Amino acid sequence: MNSEEVKGDGRPVQQSHVEMVELVLPNDTNQLGNLLGGRLMHWIDIAAAMAATRHSNHVCVTAAVDEISFLHPIKLGELVILRASVNRVFNTSMEVGVKVFSENSLTGERKHSNSAYLTFVSIDTTGKPVTARHVLPESQDEVRRFEQALFRREQRLRHREETRRIWSEATSRQE
Ligand SMILES: CC(C)(COP(=O)(O)OP(=O)(O)OC[C@H]1O[C@@H](n2cnc3c(N)ncnc32)[C@H](O)[C@@H]1OP(=O)(O)O)[C@@H](O)C(=O)NCCC(=O)NCCS
After folding, report:
1. Intervals of the chain under pLDDT 70
2. CB-ligand 1 contact for 119 (6 Å cutoff)
3. Whose CA is nearest to atom 10 of ligand 1?
4. How many domains does the chain have?
5. CATH number for the domain including 127?
């Protein structure tokens, strides 16, 4: 990282940190008693939005969610622990990482079930994107995530351009 990226009115990553805990209830599960993927995605989005807002002190909207893989089923009655923090701020957008664990509170067994990366944009009261303050990575893990976030952003923006091109070609064929 260069010093330009961490100076100014930056704030440590830790200050954006959010830990959210949910209990998996019957209404959150499918016929097998496993947590619904959509419910987990909703919780991931909420945890990430809180971290982005806590960092920027602005309302933040979800601009993009990277691919999410489900490593193992989470069962009815288990706890879901979501840890979210801002990995890197670009200009108006920021990458938030969310790490998800399931915990069987009867045995204490904890498993890492997902990691997700989301892009949030900080907006003003009219919905216009506004520049967010820098984030200051401190621990080794925070510095690693900060550095890797740039690579992921480049991939995302390439993907966005490609999707726009495909959509505009498809739309012009329909006309
Ligand atoms: C997100 C939103 C505010 C972006 O506004 P916009 O006028 O397109 O603004 P820009 O194109 O300048 O993008 C703003 C920032 O978002 C980033 N961005 C936008 N789409 C992105 C994507 N798919 N992936 C990664 N970054 C993205 C841009 O790179 C830019 O980042 P930067 O300022 O840090 O360089 C606007 O598209 C919006 O309001 N979308 C709906 C959000 C919403 O309702 N979310 C809930 C889920 S439906």
Report:
1. 1-8, 175
2. yes
3. 129
4. 1
5. 3.10.129.10
